[in-house]
Fold this sequence. Notes:
By secondary structure, the chain is α/β, with parallel strands linked by helices. The chain has three domains: 2-345, no CATH class; 358-419; 437-628, Vaccinia Virus protein VP39 (Rossmann fold), CATH 3.40.50. Helices cover 51% and strands 14% of the residues. Strand 1 (2-6) and strand 2 form a beta hairpin.
Amino acid sequence: MMHASLTNAGLFCYFPIGKRKEMKKKKQNFTYIGGQAVIQGVMMRGKSGMATVVRDDNGELQMEAKRITPPEKRKKWMRVVFLRGIVNFILSLVGGMQALLRSSEVAIVEDEASPKLNKWVAEKWKVSVSDIVTTVATFLGVVIALVLFLFLPQLFTNMISEAAPNYIPLHGIWYYLLEGGFRLCIFVCYILFTLLFKSLRETYCYHGAEHKTINCYEYGLPLTVENVKGCSRLHDRCGTTFLFIVMFISIILFSLVGWLVGSRIQTGIEALDFALVFLIKLLFLPIVASVSYEVLRLLAKIQNPIVLPLKAPGYLLQKLTTKEPTDEMIECAIMAFQKVLDMDADPESPEKTFVTETKLSKLQAMMKRHFAEKNIDESDAEWILSLTLNVPRSELKTERVITQKECGQILALYEERLTGKPLWYIFGNTEFYGYRIEVDERVLIPRPETEILVQQAIAALSEGDKMLDLCTGSGAIAVAVACECAKDRNVSVTAVDISDDALEVARKNVRMNKANVNIFKSDLFENVRGKFNLITANPPYIKTSEIPTLQREVRDFEPHLALDGGEDGLEFYRRIASKVGRYIVRGGMLILECGENQSREILKIFSKCDYAMVVKDLSGKERVVKIVF
């Protein structure tokens, strides 16, 4: 049999009688994480991040997670008692509204006319329908709240005061107490009214899932659906309780302020007097919010049955605004809570974005901002958009609306890039010297500066010449040279590498570009036969000690076999120098790519050559060494 047990934290969890004593001994994990229900989902907010999980019309869970400024990093005045209440109220209001409206973009199914309307609006005004709805809904929400909870109570009280001035004198203490009573009644009636709508009752179920999940964690239980189901849907730090406290504090504060100030407002114009009193209440709303915030924090910290009567009204209202959730709803809450936990614990935990219709400029700005935060080249955002949308990068300045399908494709690539994986590994190919080269983690990504080597190689080859490309990797150099020379001269190109994985990629690139290249396995010259007019190589030239200091995308994803050039980075140049004379014809040329500030040392290694020169790349760095024998 299941029983309800009131814990020291004021949380109701349901466990078999035999476990109740065991559970009471467990230390509770009081958490700063809070949340709210959104349309078909739950939003959770922690110190460093907030996450919203929504079940879309296909039944799939979608997540949006973004980082926020932790309280300890806010400006000092934002952390001052009472002022922090205003700050948190505004942040929660704005963040909650954004999460609510963002969830609607994912959860609400478009009707047949919506795509046509969206397209027309996008073409006509270059904006998304969802942006218009968000703006209008935010404005209407604020207006309706002010009308319901400030304007109407004041209007009703004025009407009664005019009808019975001897009993309820205008601006007297009873006037404001009656107004507060109206405000509280309207608040309760508003909640009861929302229960008539199925969609809002469903939202209250998600509200219950949010509370149950937080209670489960604070009770020290693993976050499973079964454990969460056994916990209460009531919580001390609930927004419903906060609103009740706001109502109660506003009754006291508005009564005092109205009694002291309102009675002195006598312009003789009834409408103006009404407006001035209304304005005064608006000005005091931040104070009401800040005091209410501190009261809520205090009540949540006091775990004593004596204060239960003070918490009881909030609990009773939560009985209305929370309902028992389904397992699927609990899954949403658990996923959002765990993501926030992860973001608070791990600064590298990635942000996520809902797959929805959006504006190109908005999506591009978001991607660039997050790439910059992760020290990722911001131009990668442009490449992702350009290649996915099949438009030149120059046209990305032209505003357009990204469809939900396009957004899904773009965000999948964006999130993978945030892991540090190089962009061209994600796409699986890159362009090199005008040719498509397929790449993955088995080979280095060919860099634009290596095209300088290709230019020098093509210029050095004549009709009937033979070329050998050492350390060919993806085969990019061999493919580009072979394909370019095939246009006006007949040359023979051979490419070798020690890595079987790299050779597999190189062969694929040779076939794809229909290049006339002979490929086989060899550790530099080990299996090579014959002599060549030109030998090229882009060997490993990074110092072993510098490998750990490389950019994350290079260090963690590109093959170290193709990077590590030994203790001083020059090991492969020495090995080439020791044997190159046997494999190059008289008057032949050796062209090598090198790292920054390595050219002089390489020239010393090849000091017995007939002639040598260094070629700089477009940025002015010494990039290629040409040696003639």
